[in-house]
TrEMBL record:
Organism expressing this protein natively: Dehalogenimonas alkenigignens
Quaternary structure note: Homohexamer.
Name under which the protein is recorded: ATP-dependent zinc metalloprotease FtsH
Enzyme class: hydrolase
Active site location: E422
Residues the record lists as binding Zn(2+): H421, H425, D497
Amino acid sequence: MKFNWKRTTIAYVVMLVASIIIFAILLPNTQDQPEEVAQSVLVAETQANNVSEITVEGERIDFITRDNPPRELFTYKEQLTSIYDIPGIDLSSVAEVNIKGSSGFDWGSILINLIPILFIGGMIIFLFSQARGANNQAMSFGRSRAKLFNVDKPTTTFENVAGVDEAKQEVQEIVEFLKSREKFQALGARIPKGVLLIGYPGTGKTLLARAIAGEAGVPFFSISGSEFVEMFVGVGASRVRDLFEQAKRNAPCIIFIDEIDAVGRQRGAGLGGSHDEREQTLNQILVEMDGFEANTTIIVIAATNRPDVLDPALLRPGRFDRRVVLDMPDLNGRLAILKIHAKGKPLADDVNLENLAKQTIGFSGADLSNLMNEAAILAARADKKAVEMSDLEESIDRVIAGPERKSRKVSAHEKEITAYHEAGHALVARMLPHADPVHKITIVARGMAGGYTKQLPAEDRYIATDSQFKAKIAISMGGRIAEEIMFGEMSTGASQDFKEATNLAKKMVTSYGMSEKLGPRTFGSKEEMVFLGKEIHEQRDYGEKTADLIDQEVESIIQTAYQTARTILVDNKARLQYIAEHLMAEETLEGDGLEKLFTEPLPPPGSPPPAAPAAVKTIEPAVEKQAEPTLKAKEKPAEPGTAAPGFAPA
């Protein structure tokens, strides 16, 4: 029960106003009210010829004296006695005697006397109703908070879902069963009782569940895993029972539990009350899912991005029979998602969604939706009639690195250091055959970075080689080496580069078995959040000697990559300076203009540096394997490479 603050406030205001009115009626006004006196006073005043007017109504006698000023007095007589029969009274000098008939009941007095009683009674009734509402509110903790969606007006169908074709095919069988279950039952088939949607954040798990409800046309109960557990013991289990009772009354139907890992974690030793309450809730879910009748038409769909922490009893056949994995979309999937989110947005003629899909490798469906929305916002901010490709390119940078920090004031010297730093990354990446093509270089500050170099692979990649890893490490070293060559000193701009390079080299040795000395084996037992990429705990299962060998191998990989990058930059110092000068003048280099800087002949020594503003830049992504540039090298560099799209951060 939801507490209605508005209604309660109005009730209290009405009670306050009524109280004021009642007290105003009942509060005696001593200036206007006549004074009550004994009957003997009336007799004495009439005998003294001091009464000008008498009014008799029932047993009450009101009279006015001839005093200056006149006084209003009243007294009472016996019920059956006439005023003329009062002993000693002299009415001969009274100017006016008014005798009114008795009204039987004084309704005004009765009403005035009843008002306080009615008011107090109303207050008691109101307070009891409030207490009963509070009690109902306390008891409602045990009721399910699942939301029932309107199936008559579906807002999401399979047409709104793209990039997960295999997952759609898996869940379409669920929809078909709900629509025509007799076909399955005739063949003795048993539909899965539960479907577990597994995938990275933003890949469309909740969207797919909503699409199932829209296609099936059956009641759809939606609840989050965290809504089961409260501060009161037993509330979670009660809510589970109430949810499944509602589902049975509305069968056939679908129950969708989002983020089930909040309540479905693997049970432990029961230490701590909160864990005990969560485990009671999980036990009730297990009982309810296993207690369905044969051929039930209640299907439970759950979503999580942490399947590694779920209790094994929850994953066994008979509960969640089917697991549907939603991976990051490939090129065709990203193109389909972009087309869906482009609906309703006017696009300019220069927009090429296929090129945009090539530039967004590693983006989830939620990232692509945000990208299109950001582009529309940028176009609206600039008062444009349509979304242009430049808006989409800018939104990519905003999604990845954050908005431009235009208010950030950078000195000329720091700008020069950043330009050489990013040019070093780009030049090393351009020289290494196993590195991804360089798509863009910028020294415009975004987020926490002073600039960045963006690389894009020529195609989607699902595995990585040691050559690609070594190339990525060498590219990370390129920024610091360029600073050392040109300025003879080191800055703090490469700290994140070294962190990523060290982590990657360590994984090559301890996780991927890419060490010649240690061989194809792994070291350390790790517990990780699989889909979130977070390492929780590592158990060391090797000795000190092996630990020293691991450190030596990591050091060897990093030093080899460092020397490779240094050789490239020392032998091509003039090219490095040429690129950095253009970068300082234009701030951003990309597309054909960037490729030209790598391949065109260098200007003669002593030529003036390029001047701003920058030339017009193209936005066609450089995703094809680049031709070998006209760079010189004293020795062929090692053939390392990179594993995935990304940046060589500043």
